Amino acid sequence: MSMSIILVTGASSGIGLAVARLAATRGDHVVLVARGRESLDATARGCERLGAASTMVLPLDVGDDDAVGDCIGAVLDRHGRIDTVIHCAGVVAFGRTESLPPEIFDGVLRTNLLGSANVARHVVPVLRGQGSGTLVLVGSALGHITVPSMSPYVISKWGVRALAHQLRLENRDRPDVAILYVAPGGVDTPIYHHAASVIGHEGRPPPPVSSPQRAARQILRRVDRGRGRPQLSMANDVTRLVFAAPLVHDRVVAPIIGFLVADLARPVDPHPGNVLTSMKGENAMRGRRENTVLGLARNLAVRITRRGRGTATSSDPKSPRTSP
């Protein structure tokens, strides 16, 4: 499928950036959406070098329904149609339900879940009117299970999966309109160190960790076929199977995932991350991964030091700063 009109949200980093670059190598017209103009401009320059037929930069927050509507209108004004929308935009906050400040908790739901609904409500009528096209909602393995200290993200991704099922049901009368849902597993992207945190640590992707480029290839392959398995990692199938046994999952697997995702990561003070505002100049495809053994040793030393000083542990967090 060459010279398609492909709109990518979350195009300034991670999987969205990888999808945009891969679409550019195919000679597609690439429409780039994210909150930060500077990062989007950098993405556009990279796509042009890779062979994109054209690029279009639209800085906006997908949580703003009016802005999403204006975006879709602008694309139609320029290109006359939209072939594929790949919705990758998302944010993360690490913390328990009661520990996260309401504006952070709600901000994750606004971007991840309401943002997905905003994109769908404006894109689906266009695809139906054209008689064809594809909407891809990028979910997560965490939209199928639960884990400690990622409450709003887990809730939002369960919602994205439900939204995809609902949209498929509502559009069965348009066989050439494809609603696809994909669930990456652990992917090495900046979303973890961009995340808000009140648990005393950054996050990190759970193993096995794959690359955003691999996720992008899998997503575009499904777009080309118009179908495909939702799970992008075999490990997702294992965790979903274990989740069906609540005692095993809640007492064994979930704590292990929590340990791998947070306890081995770099200690940080409470902060709002990029949940409320974008981070200037952050245009990376991959995150900041480090050696697991070194991470374990470092965090063990930090915990011993904290106990020696009688300081609070990560189970009693401070609220993150929400001012710049």
Quickly describe the structure.
By secondary structure, the chain is of the alpha/beta class. The protein has helices spanning 14-25, 37-50, 65-79, 102-130, 151-170, 191-194, 212-225, 234-243, 246-263, 292-309, and strands at residues 5-9, 29-34, 54-59, 84-87, 93-94, 133-138, 177-182, 186-187, 196-197, 209-210.
> Helices and strands: which structural class?
alpha/beta
- CATH C-level: Alpha Beta
* Sheet with most strands: strand arrangement: 3-2-1-4-6-7
Silhouette? globular
Write a structural description.
This is NAD(P)-dependent dehydrogenase (Short-subunit alcohol dehydrogenase family). It holds the Pfam family adh_short. Residues 311-324 have a biased composition (Polar residues). Belongs to the short-chain dehydrogenases/reductases (SDR) family. By secondary structure, the chain is α/β, with parallel strands linked by helices. The chain has one domain (5-309): Rossmann fold (3-Layer(aba) Sandwich), CATH 3.40.50.720. Helix content is 48%, strand content 13%. It contains ten helices and ten strands. The strands form three sheets. The chain has a six-stranded parallel beta sheet with strand order 3-2-1-4-6-7, with helices on both faces. It has a two-stranded parallel ribbon with strand order 5-9. Strands 8-10 form a two-stranded parallel sheet. Helix 1 (14-25) packs parallel to helix 2 (37-50) and helix 3 (65-79) packs parallel to helix 4 (102-130). The longest helix is centred in the middle third of the chain and has 29 residues, at 102-130. The chain starts with a strand and ends in a 15-residue tail after the last helix. Residues 291-296 and 311-318 have low confidence and may be disordered.
